[in-house]
Amino acid sequence: MVLKTWRFAPLLFVALGACATAPKTTEEGYITELPEEVVALAAPYQNLNAVRLDPADGCYWYLHRNPVEDTFLPLRTAGGNPICTRLATEAEIAAANTSETQ
């Protein structure tokens, strides 16, 4: 459902030389050290200690914990835009939307 709204919302892309190679991650897959640019852009209410870079969409996702469930949410700026390293193609968006409805 989140991906469907991305077509209409502007995405924020981070031009990072470090993203040319895979970032170092923990055993759980969390990035061990986020790029300074990402930390500076991220809204303050998000968990920056549990962030993954999804290769399918090129966006950063963080682990949100609450009393009901733990879930990954897109890492966003204070303005609400997702923080990504590249634009997802229309085919990737369509595939994600299809898998959500199944």
Structure explained in plain terms:
This protein is an alpha+beta fold and 102 residues long. The protein has 3 helices and 5 strands. The strands form 2 sheets. The protein has a 3-stranded antiparallel beta sheet, with no helix packed on it. Strand 2 (51-54) and strand 3 (59-65) form a beta hairpin. Mean pLDDT is 78; it is low at 1-13 and 15-20.
Summarize the structure.
The protein is an alpha+beta fold and 102 residues long. 23% of the residues lie in helices and 20% in strands.
Q: Termini separation (Å)?
A: 12 Å
Strand content: 15-25%
Strand order in the largest sheet = 2-3-4
Rg from Cα: 13 Å
SS element count, helices: 3
Layout of helices and strands:
Layout: H1 2-6, E1 12-13, H2 36-41, E2 51-54, E3 59-65, E4 70-74, E5 83-84, H3 90-101
Parallel strand pairs: 1-5
Antiparallel strand pairs: 2-3, 3-4
